[in-house]
Amino acid sequence: MPVDIDAAVLSNTRLSSNYNVVRLAAPEIARQARPGQFIMVRPGRNGEPFLRRPFSVFEILRDPSGSVVGLSLLNKQIGIATRAIFALEPGDRLPCLGPLGQPFTPVDPPTETWMVAGGVGLAPFAMLAESLRSRGSATTLFYGARHGVELYYLDFFEQLGTRLVLTTEDGSRGETWFVTSALENALRKLPPHAPLMVYACGPTRMLAAVARLAAAYSRPAEVSLEQVMGCGLGGCYSCVVEVRNGDRDGHYVRACIEGPVFRSDRVIWETLMH
Questions:
Q1: Is residue 136 packed enough to be buried (19+ CB in 10 Å), middle (13-18) or exposed (0-12)?
Q2: What span, in angstroms and rounded, lies between the C-alpha atoms of 259 and 132?
Q3: What is the CATH number of domain 112-272?
Q4: Assessment of whether the complete model's pTM goes beyond 0.85
Q5: What average pLDDT score do residues 237-254 get?
Q6: Where are the domains positioned within the chain?
């Protein structure tokens, strides 16, 4: 069950002039959270912004004994809420509600797992990579950004044994192409009967491209949608997504309830991108 707490800020690591990782003392949420779930936070003061904002749970924090003590959020400052989160200092308080939403579906060996992240879409994959490692699954992270300096937490994933495939649009690190091009190249080389599960999070057009590639190569995929959410509890209907329900199209669901993780072949991407 989700809980609503006023979490203390443990630390704020600024990765760049726009990206940061905030660590929160929220064990009540962290102990329940599963990879792909999110929390709703209310940063700022004087009632602005009025609505909470959704953030994927990035890491589960543990003390030296292994006890869960909190969680972290990966943030990119863009608007009022994300600027307020970027400015947080240790000891500040951040109201948090969670965990919310449907998580990724983990798989076991011998199925290989590929995670595809675009920019801040890296957020749900720290937890997922840890979970897959505990199951013994071989993991690869396809991680794309505009510039090499915007590729973060690489050491974290390498320490988990995750193979990295990096792409940048300006060629400053890794391959010079979109992350979906790297994914397509890898799918083309993979033996047809090799078991594989694809997970993706990032901009909607990137997710649509991943869904198209997964279908073309007959591979299952799950995507975490970055929908605008007003409440996170299904009451405001601000995050509706058109999906296929069996053979029937035109069925709308709330991403905060049935998502944010969806099977990629369920989503009607044409509607989502308009």
A1: exposed
A2: 20
A3: 3.40.50.80
A4: yes
A5: 84
A6: 3-100, 112-272
